[in-house]
């Protein structure tokens, strides 16, 4: 199953190195089972998105490791891919960027011909790859524009249309700007987790440390002494007790100063649900959890 990762510490910039490389279940570690592409999206000092994407496994990619070690940003979106739709190539590698926003998706949507007609020729002209994910992002982006820039309303409109019109297995997604992060889990086929870490951790004055089973500290993240962080991921990445599962249909929004709100925007099951047995072999293999 593709793995999603999002972190936001806005308005402060921080590093995501711990979760990307050093945590017990880091994205680097998860890429051993998801080897078909690696992507890291972040925002520069002007709030402009930057995307690093390679169609190889993160654990094999020295450039990914360097980016993960040194990049500072107010928000990150990262993804390791187990291909379900489209060849193993850069245009099909997440995250995607549109309109100053970063997007990544885990799941399977079918009926892409219907979705493409719904998007129209102009929107399709801007799509560079073959994935259901990039087409979903194009729909979300269009609905945000139709909502006057209201991201929550745009995501809600888009996913409600998908849930009612298309066969789907999962549309778990992350969307980030330089100041905000949104996450959706739907339906309950693939899990998505939230971790809220206050500045300094539970005691208010500590960096993030990780100790292995022998008690030896092997990771130290001093940025998080002064920067609160909210993390969303496809699975808990360390032993922190604060990880919680998003509910099916829950749309989470982390605002510019760390405020977290959530709404059930899809209370009902999909109109055309897909089971693993309904999927093409490659798509079914991509959705198996370990």
UniProtKB/TrEMBL annotation:
<feature type="domain" description="Glutamine amidotransferase type-2">
    <location>
        <begin position="2"/>
        <end position="257"/>
    </location>
</feature>
<dbReference type="InterPro" id="IPR017932">
    <property type="entry name" value="GATase_2_dom"/>
</dbReference>
<dbReference type="Pfam" id="PF13230">
    <property type="entry name" value="GATase_4"/>
</dbReference>
<dbReference type="InterPro" id="IPR026869">
    <property type="entry name" value="EgtC-like"/>
</dbReference>
<dbReference type="InterPro" id="IPR029055">
    <property type="entry name" value="Ntn_hydrolases_N"/>
</dbReference>
<keyword id="KW-0315">Glutamine amidotransferase</keyword>
<protein>
    <submittedName>
        <fullName>Class II glutamine amidotransferase</fullName>
    </submittedName>
</protein>
């Amino acid at each position: 199953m593709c793995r999603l990762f999002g972190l936001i510490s806005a308005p402060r910039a921080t590093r995501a190195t711990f979760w990307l490389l050093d945590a017990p279940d880091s994205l680097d570690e998860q890429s051993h089972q998801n080897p078909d592409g690696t992507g890291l999206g972040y925002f520069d000092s002007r709030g402009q998105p930057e995307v690093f994407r390679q169609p190889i496994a993160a654990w094999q990619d020295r450039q990914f490791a360097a980016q993960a070690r040194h990049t500072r940003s107010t928000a990150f979106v990262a993804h390791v891919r187990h291909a379900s739709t489209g060849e193993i190539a850069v245009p099909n590698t997440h995250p995607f960027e549109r309109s100053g926003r970063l997007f990544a998706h885990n799941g399977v949507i079918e009926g892409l011909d219907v979705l493409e007609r719904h998007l129209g020729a102009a929107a399709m002209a801007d799509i560079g790859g073959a994935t259901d994910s990039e087409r979903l992002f194009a729909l979300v982006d269009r609905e945000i524009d139709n909502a006057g820039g209201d991201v929550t309303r745009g995501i809600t409109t888009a996913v409600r249309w998908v849930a009612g019109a298309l066969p789907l297995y999962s549309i778990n997604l992350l969307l980030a700007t330089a100041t905000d992060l949104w996450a959706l889990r739907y339906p309950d086929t693939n899990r998505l987790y939230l971790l809220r870490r206050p500045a300094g951790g539970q005691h208010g004055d500590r960096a993030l440390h990780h100790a292995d089973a022998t008690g030896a500290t092997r990771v130290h993240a001093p940025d998080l002494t002064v920067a609160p962080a909210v993390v969303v991921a496809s699975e808990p990445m360390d032993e922190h007790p604060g990880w919680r599962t998003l509910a099916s249909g829950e749309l989470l929004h982390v605002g510019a100063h760390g405020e977290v709100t959530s709404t059930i925007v899809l209370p009902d099951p999909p109109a055309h649900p897909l089971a693993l047995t309904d999927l093409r072999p490659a798509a079914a293999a991509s959705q198996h959890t370990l």
